Amino acid sequence: MTNQSIRERARAIWSSTDGLVGIFLVPVLLGLLVELVNHLLNSIFLVSKFRYFYQQIPIYNDGTHFQHVTLDFGIEYTFLFQFLVELLFLVALFQVLQRVREVTRQLSYKESFRILFGPRFVPIVLATMVKEFILYLASLPLIVGLVTGLGLILTPNLYFLSYGVLPDFSPLVTTSVGLISLGLMVFGLLLSLYVDLSLKPMYFLLHDQLEAGVFQNPFKLMKQSWQLMKGNRMRLFLLDFSFFFWWVGILLTFGLLAIYVMPYYWTCQALFYEDRKSQSADLYQTFFLTATK
């Protein structure tokens, strides 16, 4: 299937399926609610996380006016709810895959809760935790590059506030740090994108292995997802990129458009997975043979 035919079939499935929007309604709205609560905690109560590092660095402007820079790191209080949102998205994908395979034509958010809190709860949680952790590790160069870049921009301003003059930094040092920061950001962005594309089929593979009763561990699942995507990452990237203006629309509507976009997007992902499975049938079968050994 081409990406265009995948999108066309996804739209046809979306228009002919009862409950497809509904199974994404709960995680999308819950996700928006979590973000709202997190914002209120931060703006009203001035705290939104369990801090494990907090320090105020004083900066004096003229000896009477006090200013400071705050370093604040911690785990947000809403972390568990954010993780629940991710789990609800995952089990929604299970139902989308069943609809694509014509197993059912009617989907229900109640079925999502039944799947999530049933006997599959532990492998679902483990797979989600491992995937999110790997994606976080892949994003570290990007984060370090951003922090370094911000430090390069802010340091002269902070120095000026403290001493009233701009620092006399060597152009060589400034240029070197700037290039390193930019390099880390570019590398981190590409690495994050590469890893994300490689792990896109992971949840669909999880569904199939749980159905077959051959799931072993999320690390093997991750390796199999990587193998399944070999040579097809650019194709999936182009499919994802075709949703660019949809993502812009989600930002402009403060996330509300996701209620419409998520069913369409993940139906496309399920169809892409089915296409990869049919193209790599021999490889796909080995995932179940090796799992039983």
TrEMBL record:
The chain crosses the membrane at residues 20-41, 79-97, 133-153, 173-195, 236-266. It comes from Streptococcus suis. It comes from the Bacteria. It holds the Pfam family DUF975. Keywords: Membrane, Transmembrane, Transmembrane helix. This is DUF975 family protein.
